[in-house]
Amino acid sequence: MIEFEGTAALTPEQADCEATRKAEAARMKAAHDQEFAAFTEASYHQVERILRSACRDREVVEDALNEAYLHGRVQWSKLRVHDRPIGWIIVTARHKIRKDHQRHLREAAMAPEDLPTAPHSNIADVWEAQELLRGWLHRLPARHAEVFQMAQEGFSNQEIARILGLTENSVRSYKVAARRGLRELAEEAGYVAPDGHRRQGARRGPR
C-alpha cells in the first residue's frame, strides 16, 4: 500500500482549503508589512526627536531605534490594535539606550560630557533653532527633557505618564521645571521675550 505525505495526502477539498489558508496568510502579511512601513515612516523622526532630547549620541539613538522597530515589526499583529503603538517603540528604544549606557559604565569610566557652547544671539533658520533647543535640553535632567519633548510632539499628560511610568502630577511638575530651566538657559544666552522681559531679577508690574 502506497502512503502519501503532505499535500499529496489531502483530498481536493482539503487542498483547496490549505491553498486558501496560505493565500489569506500571505495577503495578511502583505497588508501588515504595508501598515508597518507606513507607521515607521510617520513615527520614526518623532521618536528620534524624543530620544535625542535626553541622549545626545546620535549613533546610540539610531541603534536603539533600529532595534525597537525590528522588534515592533515582529510584534506588529499585536501592536497594530493599540491606541498609540508609538509608545511601545519609545519604551523599547529607551530600554535599549539604558542597557547600552549601563554596559558602557561597567566597561570604562565615563568622561564628563561637555556642555554645549553658548549660541549666537541670532537664530538663522529652523534647523539652527532646533539644534539650539536640543543643546539646552541636554543641559536639563534627562526626565525633564523627555517629558518636555513628548509634550511638544503632541502627547497628552496621560500618555506621557503611561509611556514613561510616571504619575500625571509628576508629568505636570516636570513640564513646569523643564520650561523654567529652558527659560533660564535662554536668558543666560542673551535671549529675551519679545517685550524684552527677563525672568530673573525682573520686577512684576501691576496685575
Could you walk me through the main structural features you see in this protein, from its secondary elements to its overall organization?
With 207 residues, the chain is mainly alpha-helical. 66% of the residues lie in helices and 0% in strands. It contains eight helices and no strands. Helix 7 packs across helix 8. The radius of gyration is 25 Å and the shape is elongated. The relative contact order is 0.08. The C terminus is likely disordered.
Annotation keywords:
207 residues, mainly alpha, 66% helix, 0% strand
Structural class call reads mainly alpha
Total helical elements = 8
Rg (CA only): 25 Å
What is the general shape? elongated
Rounded mean pLDDT score: 79
Largest sheet: none
> Quick one: how many beta strands?
0
C-alpha end-to-end distance? 100 Å
Low-pLDDT segments, ≥5 res: 108-124, 198-207
* Strand residues, percent: under 5%
Helical content band = 55-70%
Order of helices and strands: HHHHHHHH
Structure at a glance:
With 207 residues, the chain is mainly α.
Topology:
Elements (H helix, E strand, L loop, with lengths): L11 H41 L5 H17 L1 H4 L5 H23 L18 H12 L4 H11 L4 H8 L3 H21 L19
Helix pairs in contact: 1-2, 1-4, 2-4, 6-8, 7-8
